[in-house]
Amino acid sequence: MGRSSKDKRDIYYRLAKEEGWRARSAFKLLQLDEEYQLFQGVQKAVDLCAAPGSWSQVLSRKLRPNDETSEVKIVAVDLQAMAPLPGVIQIQGDITKVSTAHEIIRHFEGQPADLVVCDGAPDVTGLHDIDEYIQAQLLLAALNITTHVLRKGGTFVAKIFRGKDVTLLYSQLKIFFQDVTCAKPRSSRNSSIEAFVVCQGFNPPDGYIPNMSNPLLDHCYDVDFNQLEGPNRVIVPFLACGDLSAYDSDRTYSLQLDTSKEYCYIPPNQPPIQPPYEEACFLKKNNLLAKEPPPSPLNQSTTASAKEKENNAICDGGEVQKLSISS
Hints:
This protein has 9 helices and 8 strands. The chain has about 325 residues and is α/β, with parallel strands linked by helices. It has 2 domains: about 5-240, Rossmann fold, CATH 3.40.50; about 295-325. It is globular, with a radius of gyration of 27 Å. Belongs to the class I-like SAM-binding methyltransferase superfamily. RNA methyltransferase RlmE family. TRM7 subfamily. It is found in: Cytoplasm; Nucleus. It comes from Pyxicephalus adspersus.
């Protein structure tokens, strides 16, 4: 397949390159903002699991249109290195460490954030139960650090994999936020189980002390959501963002979207910096990947003789069995 094949199969991938976004996921946050007005009145924003930086780009363009004069502060956090973005402070750190939360607050000069977003996801295995569990743990880690850095009344947006235990996650989020909705942007493929939880009105329980050491899914602050069974269980509000006028993320489009313009291939806006697979690509390119040694003639003859003895033993056993039955 040529370079343009993915441009045909994924319209948002193509549009992201044309509009200068680092990844197609930028459209997901833009469409969520259209529905929920996430950026209204935001002066301090945090992007967790930010690499390669498409959501940080959206925050920068929407919250800091005049970069020189804007007082809005944006902090991006990720374990991986990320190419610099205008108006974005980068922290290469672990969201499960309390030191990372302190560093975020330090960049905000001791003030909490108005908005925390997280588009982090694990490397999927294809085993849905495992993927859903790991994603749930990542979401809870993001929620944990959010309780350290978000102001009362603030907003939290994070990716979630919709599975059989989504109600448990919803009940946990409902403890900390007044309004919790599960939304699926138009740019998210229908074939994907991903969605996004939009949590508005941060209001932690009285007496709650943020602590990275304690798991959130204990029952200390449970308000009887998890004890409900059958039809009485909480039904998670779900909203599909966008309408039929938007592009369909699962449809293949012609390369010539605009008849007045000729299609031209555009490379990705920002290649990954030190991705985990960099070493494997280098080894494959230079034909250095480990290979099984070819079998030697001696080994082949030894294996053949062993198989022959095994077959003879099976045949002898069969004859003995037949004799015993006939007798």
